[in-house]
Amino acid sequence: MTALPANQFIVGVDLGGTNIVVCAMSADGSRQYGLCSEPTAAHEGADGVIARMARMVNTAVADTMREAGVSRDAFLGVGVGAPGPLDREKGIVLVAPNLNWHNIPLRDRMTELTGLAAALDNDANCATYGEWWVGAARGAKNVIGMTIGTGIGGGIILDGRLYHGSSDVAGEIGHTTIDQTGRRCGCGNYGCLEAYASGTAIAERAREALSFEQLSILPDLVNGDVSKITAATVYAAAAQSDAVAIEIVRDTARFLGTGIANLLNVFNPDCVVIAGGVTQAGEALFVPLRQEVRRRAFKPAVDACRIVPGTLPGTAGVVGAVATFIAQHTGRPPA
Fold first, then answer.
1. What is the rounded distance in angstroms from the CA atom of residue 11 to the CA atom of residue 226?
2. What angle do CA 211, 217, 219 make, to 5 degrees?
3. CA distances from 217 to 211, 225, 231 (A)
4. Among 141, 144, 212, 215, which is most buried by a count of CB atoms within 10 Å?
5. Contacts of 334 (CB under 8 A, 6+ apart)
6. How far apart are CA 47 and CA 51, in angstroms?
């Protein structure tokens, strides 16, 4: 597979509910330029957010032209990773609840405002693709990606290509069921993995534990206001040997291990890459997680797969958006 020339460039955009991250990359994935982040400011509406995205893209183009000494003709286009169900063929964000978007033609608007060809894909797909292209899953053939933050997103790569399913919703790993009578999820279902192991769920479980367990430093880390406990608070307390926090991290590992074991038995990947704030827990999470996977999945599937944290914190989405543009506009995965 031949890589695109290093003297051509693509801009990647990662649109989140909180922040927009943008950077330009050489088409062979070797260099980044103009990395920047700004608040999404969703209250400004779709027009305001898209205008901000376009301005950031144009700034990244100008920065790259100056730093790399190239003309605007060297830019092939812009790839965008966006939340919510999408119609990739038409380039439309169908629904993005955190942005209050409905039927927004994001791909075409980006082309109108930047003058560059554009590609659109799901943000979790892009994060997985970024880790596959130049990150922790590099060299793997079949990959499951998990992004763990406010919720749990996912991406599936089979034979080096993103798998989207029949209606662009493949990879909704957070909404696989691990307990049919379990916790209520924000999606309305019960027992979803996201309801147990997302950053939001980890913080909620910590607050629940404190309602009957007083011997913990967790309240001290938030000046006594337990409503301010986050998943990061739990990881910090676990690192200081707090028994409550350690148990929450171990339970989170077991929940994730159960979900991942199911995926191993279905897809038989050679790599599972986990990205997001949960990786801050380090081996305190990954050791029991891998143990749970070994306990539940078929041995040949476990033996063939490595389970690793992502290596592109903060940039996997934009890198993957660049990779998505390459795949959509060349008809083949990036080299």
1. 41
2. 55
3. 14, 12, 14
4. 144
5. 3, 4, 29, 133, 322, 323, 326, 327
6. 6
- Which residues neighbour 181 within 8 Å (Cβ) at sequence distance 6 or greater? 190, 191
CB atoms near residue 309 (< 10 Å) = 19
The crossing angle, in degrees rounded to 10, of helices 199-210 and 231-239 is: 60
The residue count of the chain comes to 335
Q: What does each of the 335 residues of the chain score in pLDDT, given as a tens digit?
A: 556 777 899 999 999 888 999 999 999 999 999 999 999 999 999 999 999 999 999 999 999 999 999 999 999 999 999 998 899 999 999 988 879 899 999 999 999 999 999 999 999 999 999 999 999 999 999 999 999 988 899 999 999 899 999 998 899 999 999 999 999 998 899 999 999 999 999 999 999 999 987 799 999 999 999 999 999 999 999 999 999 999 999 999 999 999 999 999 999 999 999 998 888 889 999 999 999 999 999 999 999 999 999 999 889 999 999 999 999 988 888 87
Q: Which helix (DSSP H) or strand (DSSP E) does residue 276 occupy?
A: strand 271-276
Write down all domains in the chain, each with its CATH number in brackets: 9-132+315-330 (3.30.420.40), 140-309 (3.30.420.40)
SS3 301: helix
- H or E stretch including 82? strand 75-82
